[in-house]
Amino acid sequence: MTKSELIAQLAAENPHLRQQDIDLIVATIFEEVTAALARGQRVELRGFGAFSTKRRDPRLGRNPRTGEAVEVSAKAVPYFKPGKELRERVNEGTKPRPAAARRAAVPA
């Protein structure tokens, strides 16, 4: 799903919101996640997963065309760890449960 497809789907599911507002909301969320990762912070979305950065040490790589050794500098790369609920839904192919059903399933 592309960003524009996500916006179109959210607009269809929420006719009371203008598509321009949904576009702004989605863009803001992505921008905030990106900015937090750039600052070295971790972003956790409960039930979905956590975004963080991992450090890669410098290494000696190879140019695939020539086979020549190339130095690759150290860098930070984005990393996503899916949450338990996301993993379960992907593996089971289940539909999202309504919030009331999730609350009822949690023992008091």
Description:
With 108 residues, the chain is α+β, with helices and mostly antiparallel strands. It has 2 domains: 1-41; 44-108, HU Protein, Chain A, CATH 4.10.520.10. Helix content is 44%, strand content 25%. It is built from 4 helices and 5 strands, in the order ααβββββαα. The protein has helices spanning 3-13, 19-38, 84-92, 99-105, and strands spanning 43-45, 49-56, 59-62, 69-72, 75-82. Strands 1-2-5 form a 3-stranded antiparallel sheet. A two-stranded antiparallel sheet has the order 3-4. A hairpin with a 6-residue loop joins strand 3 and strand 4. Helix 1 packs across helix 2 (19-38). The longest helix is centred in the N-terminal third of the chain and has 20 residues, at 19-38. It starts with a helix and ends with a helix.
Question: What is the CATH class name of the largest domain?
Answer: Few Secondary Structures
Cα shape: elongated
**The biggest beta sheet, please?**
3 strands, antiparallel
Question: What number of domains?
Answer: 2
Number of strands: 5
Q: Roughly what fraction of the amino acids lie in strands?
A: 25-35%
Function: This protein is one of the two subunits of integration host factor, a specific DNA-binding protein that functions in genetic recombination as well as in transcriptional and translational control.
GO cellular component, one term: cytosol
Region (Disordered): 88-108
Subunit structure: Heterodimer of an alpha and a beta chain.
